[in-house]
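Project outcomes to date are best conveyed with an example. Our students and postdoctoral researchers have been running inverse folding experiments weekly, and each run begins with a structure described purely in tokens. The record below, which covers 478 residues, was selected by the lab manager from last quarter's runs and is presented without edits.
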């Protein structure tokens, strides 16, 4: 046995000597996948000094090209040091990084917030004319703003001419977009107005970026102010402007204002698109103003705006809640007749399943779903599982559980959570414990509410056990 271990040790030692060229500077290892070979070299020597890594890379025997270098960097998107070491080594090996390669390296360093190294790479790149392009500049802005280095991002934007890039509306919108996306809307708007004071002529697309920023933050008050500024400006609101503001208003429950905007849009000859109509229909349904929602739904086609699956699903969802099932299935039939992009989807069938009252109806809905080519997924399986548990249909639960396992859709954490909480509601403590233990054994992290339930159950069981022991002690006199 000892002899076998020594033999195996020599085999592995020989393999790594070959892989890393230890003790033999002349040997060059040929690998079927050069990117994989380099990845292994960087992985096994990740914490070694840079010069050792460079020496190992020197002997890997690969021919560097743009595709290979890019492949290696992409394999290290979440591990900046090996990527940076390899990038620097490639230049010493005679490779001249392309724009795509540099962009990938900058993106990795920015993502990991290694801005000192990022600036070094950027300074080297600035010495090569035409290397920094719009794609790379957008990456830099995104990473600076993503790290909340707003001033650095703005200063970088002002250096565009140093990199041979012109100041333009599209580039400026990119900066504003990233500022807004990372919730620096106030800074974005301040910059926007400062640039306008210097003679920049803002178009509606640039205004839309600022409006959308406030809307995404949910600040309707500021969004309303920007809307008024847009109306007062030489720019004319477009469909995207209306859609952005109407969506924000409906989300905040300001349906009256959204409807006035919607009707004003029609009066001005600006045709609402399907996104705007869906927002209004969904908001009307939420307020139980179904007849008005149906009226807008019927008018859509007349205006040349064809409804989407989301349009139908909004109506179906709320009609199921008020039990207007005849109208629900009328809409589903219409979706199927329209075919194409209007075919019922998982959301549609989940609405139908939630409206069911007894187990026998499940097969009918799932059969229809299958006939129309809509595949089952974890959402549908877990919903069916919950329904069968609620109805106490043990056979349905067992078959659904087995089908989930067979088709690779679970059971997942949600499945176990359903079983644990439903069994607890029915007072089946043994089943609660069984499913919880099975869940944990599979490495799943229970939801906080599940941990709290099991914890309280353990306390109750412990208290009950101690009480039984006290009674037993009193009975026996021990």
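After processing, the design step wrote out the following sequence:
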């Amino acid at each position: 046995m000892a002899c076998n271990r020594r033999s195996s040790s020599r085999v592995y030692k020989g393999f790594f000597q070959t892989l890393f060229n230890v003790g033999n500077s002349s040997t060059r290892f040929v690998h079927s996948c050069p990117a994989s070979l380099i990845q292994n070299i960087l992985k096994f020597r990740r914490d070694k000094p840079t010069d050792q890594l460079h020496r190992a890379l020197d002997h890997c025997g690969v021919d560097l090209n743009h595709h290979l270098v890019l492949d290696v960097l992409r394999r290290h998107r979440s591990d900046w040091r090996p990527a940076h070491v390899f990038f620097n080594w490639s230049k010493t090996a005679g490779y001249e990084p392309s724009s795509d390669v540099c962009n990938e390296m900058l993106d990795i360093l920015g993502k990991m917030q290694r801005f000192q190294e990022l600036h070094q790479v950027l300074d080297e790149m600035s010495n090569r004319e035409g290397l920094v392009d719009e794609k790379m500049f957008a990456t830099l802005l995104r990473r600076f703003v993503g790290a909340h280095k707003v001033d650095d991002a703005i200063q970088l934007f002002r250096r565009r001419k140093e990199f041979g890039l012109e100041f333009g509306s599209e580039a400026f919108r990119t900066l504003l977009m990233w500022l807004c996306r990372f919730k620096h809307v106030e800074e974005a708007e301040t910059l926007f107005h400062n640039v306008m004071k210097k003679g920049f002529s803002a178009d509606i697309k640039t205004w839309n970026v600022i409006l959308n920023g406030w809307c995404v933050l949910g600040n309707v008050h500021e969004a309303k102010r920007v809307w008024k500024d847009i109306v007062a400006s030489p720019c004319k609101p477009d469909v995207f402007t209306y859609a952005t503001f109407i969506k924000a208003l409906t989300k905040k429950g300001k349906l009256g204002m959204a409807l006035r905007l919607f009707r004003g849009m029609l009066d001005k000859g600006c045709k609402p698109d399907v996104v705007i109509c869906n927002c209004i229909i969904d908001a009307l349904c939420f307020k139980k103003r179904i007849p008005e929602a149906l009226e807008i739904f019927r008018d859509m086609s007349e205006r040349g705006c064809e409804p989407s699956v989301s349009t139908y699903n909004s109506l179906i969802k709320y009609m199921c809640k008020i039990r207007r099932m005849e109208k629900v299935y009328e809409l589903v039939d219409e979706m199927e007749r329209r075919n194409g992009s209007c075919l019922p989807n998982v959301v549609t069938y989940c609405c139908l399943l939630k409206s069911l009252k007894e187990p026998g109806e499940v097969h009918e809905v799932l059969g229809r779903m299958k006939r129309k080519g809509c595949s089952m997924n974890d959402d549908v399986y877990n919903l069916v599982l919950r329904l069968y548990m609620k109805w106490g249909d043990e056979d349905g639960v067992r078959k659904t559980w087995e089908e989930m396992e067979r088709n690779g859709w679970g059971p997942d954490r949600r499945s176990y959570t359903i079983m644990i909480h439903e069994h607890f509601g029915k007072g089946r403590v043994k089943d609660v414990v069984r499913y919880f233990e099975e869940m944990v054994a599979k490495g799943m992290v229970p939801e906080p509410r599940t941990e709290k339930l099991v914890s309280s159950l353990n306390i109750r069981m412990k208290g009950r056990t101690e009480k039984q022991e006290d009674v037993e002690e009193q009975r026996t006199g021990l």
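Confidence is low (pLDDT under 50) at residues 1-30. Residues 448-476 form the longest helix (29 residues). The training component of this project remains on track.
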